[in-house]
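ARCHIVE RECORD
Type: protein–small molecule complex
Small molecule: nicotinamide-adenine-dinucleotide
Source of inputs: curated submission
Record status: active
Notes field left blank by submitter.
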Amino acid sequence: MKVLLTGGLGFIGSHIVRKFIASDWCTHLINLDNMSYGSNTNNVKDVETNKKYTFVYGDIRDYELLTKLVKDVDIVINAAAETHVDRSIANPGPFVETNVVGTFNLLEACRRNDVKLFMQISTDEVYGDAVCGESFNEEDTFKPSNPYSATKAAADCLVMAYNRTYGLNTIITRSTNNFGPYQHPEKFIPKTIIRAALGLSVPVYGTGKQIRDWIYVEDHVEAVELVLLKAKGGKIYNVSAGNEFSNLDIVKQILSIMGKPTSLIEHVEDRPGHDVRYSLDSSLIRRELGWVPRHSLFEALKKTVEWYMKNEWWWRPLADERALHPTPWRLEW
Ligand SMILES: NC(=O)c1ccc[n+]([C@@H]2O[C@H](COP(=O)([O-])OP(=O)(O)OC[C@H]3O[C@@H](n4cnc5c(N)ncnc54)[C@H](O)[C@@H]3O)[C@@H](O)[C@H]2O)c1
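STRUCTURE (tokenized, with ligand):
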């Protein structure tokens, strides 16, 4: 099967590229990416010359380009997005353009060119925060808290509508917070590792008691592949490894793995609209498709710390003052 993947130079996209190229079922993968700041050609350096791989520099806001590309593929997977919550607070416009209009363009191109399957890589953030001890399932209503999650929720609505109205064969996965190799230094776990490695203070928003549900990126990508190959059209699957920890706990675990003191922790001004707790019920994918995450949180954190320590060549050019800023939502973008 031929795949068009968008956002394949980003964090999760690059893991999808690697996994799919190595599979038997994927005969060719086209990676469409506009090479915005979150992308990195070094993320796919190891597969660049693979005969099954083609890179196309382009934008999901470019409808003409999309119509050309989808003609030649069976499956379209949309992993391209503006993804940094702090940036969406400072400047939401690009989030609407890429996450909403870009997804709309892809859906239009797919339905007009009879693409067999459209898959949207979505997020648990569409449900908002789970303050009352609940875990959201796929039927729960959207309650996004920030411009990033609002645009992801809008994109999911479009995907669901294209399935219902036009009969486009669609699948949505909504995973919890990912971490692992090749994640941009501006994100919480890499920033913690890198700042600690550099002997800098490690910022924690507010009290640090906000709870996130963490998943190792390889476990997420295994779920994506399974859903793609086994799920029925129109389905939506939550993807969670059930690792609910406070931000402060995660920072302490990382510092302990790195042998660094907790005195590096610096509580900084909280992000506006900060979700208190994320929690996903992913029993559906486990029950219907038999997916189980293979990594424990501690083991995956250890692997991630080791990867960043061994791959300074990768993160050093990206780890500038802005990326490592303690309160990036206060910056002008
Ligand atoms: N990282 C997480 O924890 C997480 C969790 C759940 C869901 N997701 C979703 O997974 C997807 C990938 O996330 P990520 O963390 O890998 O993001 P990322 O920021 O690392 O990568 C996004 C990629 O999309 C590309 N891109 C951005 N705008 C584009 C455009 N207009 N046209 C073409 N390419 C464009 C970027 O250049 C980049 O390579 C996103 O849809 C995100 O919402 C991420």
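CURATOR ANNOTATION: The longest strand covers residues 117-123.
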